[in-house]
Amino acid sequence: MAKILVTGGKGFIGTNLTAELKRRGHEVVTCDILHGEEENHIRADVASYWQMERIFEKHSFDYVYHLAAEYGRWNGEDHYENLWRTNVIGTKNILRLQEKYRFRQIFFSSCEVYGDYDGVMSEDIMDKIPIKQMNDYAISKWVGELQVLNSAEMFGTETVRVRPLNCYGPHEYYSPYRGVIPIFVYRALMDMPYTVYMGHKRIFDYVEDTCRTLANIVDNFIPGEAYNIGGKEEWITDIKYVSDLILKYLGKSDKLVTYKEAEPFTTKVKKVNFSKARRDLKHDPKVPIEEGIPRYIEWMKKVYRR
Predict the structure, then answer these.
(1) Rounded distance between C-alpha atoms, residue 51 and residue 45, angstroms
(2) Helices (H), the chain
(3) In terms of DSSP H, where are the helices of 70-179?
């Protein structure tokens, strides 16, 4: 079994991934800017080199899952200083430590790096055509990938890049900067208005499925690879259908929903290829949104006492 550090370990995916890695018998240490009561949790800011170095002076890790990041397009616009400090300087700090301590890294990028591309998003697209990232969040994640590639070339570091897509589920708390599912669920629970953009389609992945695939990387670590990680290609779903599922489960009408034609500065339909993750990481999602959304709603009800 491996000794693993999860940066951003108190976040949405980090919390679920840590649980999955522990279930498999790995020794897991988490760090985050948030406090935690667990014995193996360390409060630290990835954007501070000395705070992170203290962790590596005390521990020897086989793998680091680097999730710590500011998330979301509009969050990145409103809080761009935090975004660039955490996502870019924080990643550079992890790479400098990797160059020194020689652990293997799993770097968390995002399918947002595909930007304005409207074809099928396979991992090698950026090697073939110029891509325009459409917001600071996407740009920062692509910068992180370039940092990883440069470190591998210059210093021989070994990293796998992952590009998650529309993951959702327990431990994703509401904020106006989150994805459509937590926003729709929370606002429907609280009888608050929200907006649905017509004709937008996405592939969603329940967090347990996502984290099972992420945890498999330790078993088949191929340095230099990049992987899209999401649901199944055939699960591409209209955003209105997601809203309708939520409202139906909660027994509510759509009187608080405003329907608009298209959201600006975003790709309307995201078609993603997951064949590499199936081949190398045994990627096999089990939970369609018809099952996952009710599970998530029940978790939200408990958290927000509805």
Answers:
(1) 7
(2) 12-23, 49-58, 73-78, 80-84, 90-101, 136-155, 180-189, 207-216, 239-250, 275-281, 289-304
(3) 73-78, 80-84, 90-101, 136-155
> From the centroid of its chain, how far is CA 99?
24
Spatial CA neighbour of 65 closest among 218, 244, 245, 239: 218
Selection from 156, 282, 300 nearest residue 229 by Cα:
282
Which contacts (CB < 8 Å, 24+ apart) does range 146-149 have? 147/88, 147/91, 147/92, 147/95, 148/91, 148/95, 148/105, 148/107
Which single residue is written with the structure tokens 């937590």? Answer: 182
Closest CA to 106 of 232, 206, 1, 7: 7
Average pLDDT, the chain: 96
* Distance between first and last Cα of the chain: 41
Q: Quick one: average pLDDT of 165-188?
A: 96
The identity of residue 259, as a single letter, is Y
Q: Phi/psi zone of residue 169: left (φ > 0), alpha (ψ -120 to 50 degrees), beta?
A: left
Instruction: Please give the DSSP secondary-structure letter assigned to residue 88.
Output: I
User: Looking at this protein, which amino acid is placed at residue 52?
Assistant: M
Locate 160 and state its tokens.
């796998």
CA atoms of 41 and 217, how far apart (whole Å): 22
Query: What is the arithmetic mean of pLDDT over 115-131?
Result: 91
Cα dihedral 178, 183, 185, 186, rounded to 10, equals 100
d(CA 27, CA 290): 34
Q: Which residues on neighbouring strands pair with residue 164, listed in sequence order?
A: 229
Count helices and strands (H / E) in the chain: 11, 15
Radius of gyration (Cα) for the chain, nearest Å? 19
Q: pLDDT tier at 262 (50, 70, 90 boundaries)?
A: confident
Both tokens of 44, joined, read 């630290």
